[in-house]
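REQUEST ID: PR-0412
SUBMITTED BY: lab tech R.K.
PRIORITY: routine
TASK: structure prediction, single protein chain
INPUT:
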Amino acid sequence: MKTNSKSTLRLFRIFIYVFLVLLVIVTVIPIWLVLVNATRSTVEIQQGLSALPSSHTLDNYGILRGRGLNLFRGFSNSLFVAACSTVLAVYFSLLTAYGIVVYNFKGKRFFTSFIILLVLIPVQLSIIGFYQFMSRLGLTDNFASLILPAIASAGAVFFGKQYFESIVVRDLIDAGRVDGASEFGIFHRIMMPIAVPGAVTLGIFAFVASWNNFFNAFILISSIEKYTLPMLVQLMRGDVYRTEYGAIYLGLAVTIVPIIIIYVIFSRYIINGISMGAVKE
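STATUS: complete
OUTPUT:
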C-alpha cells in the first residue's frame, strides 16, 4: 500500500511539473514572438512566424520617427504617469485600509461592502460621468486626470485591507500609543515597515495597471505630445496595405520590456505579499 501511494504521489508530481512547464511555455512564447517581431520587417512578418530575431530594429524605429511618433517621449510620459499613480495608490490605499482594519467606527461594515462593490463595477460604466467631472475641473488633456484617481483606488484598498488583517499586531499599536506616538506616526514608523512586502506587491500591480492604461488615456488626453506608449502604438494602425507591423511590434516591445524587468526584480515580493495577505491568524 505504501509503495502504491508513493508511486501515485510521484506520478502526480510529474504531472504537475509537466503542466507547469507547458504553462510557462504558453506564457513565454507570445512575449518572445513580440520581441522577435520587433526586429523584423513588415514583409518578414507577413511571410510567417519566426523564433529568431532579425536585423530591422533600426528600420522600424525610423518608421516610427518618420510618422512623428517619439517613443522616448511616450516612454517618459508613461513612466511619469505610472510612477506618480503608483505612489499615490500605495500610500493612500494602505492608509485607508489601515484605518478600516484598526479603528471601529459607525458605518464601517457598509463602507467595506461599498469598496467591494466599487471593485466589481467596470470602469467603462462610469467613464462618461468621470469625463464630465474632469472637464469641470479643467483637467482634461492633463496628466493629473490620469494620476489623481489613483488616490481612490478601490481595488488597492481592498488588497490593503486583506493584507493588514493578516499582519496587524495590535500590541505594537498600543505600545506606540503608550510611548506617545501619534496615529500617523504609528502608521509610518511601525506599520509601514512591516507592510513592505504588501506595499511592493501593491505597487507593482498599480504600476502595471497604470502603464497599460489605454482606455482612460484615450478618452482624456488629446495632445499628441502627451500621449503614452499604448496610445502611440495605436496610432500606427491604418489601412491593412499600409500598416507597418514591424514598427507596431517595436512599440509593443518597448511597452512590455519595463514590466518584465520590474517583475524579474520584484517577483519575490509579489510571492511574499500575496501569500502573507492570504493567511490570517
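NOTES: DSSP finds 14 helices and no strands in the chain.
REVIEWED BY: pending
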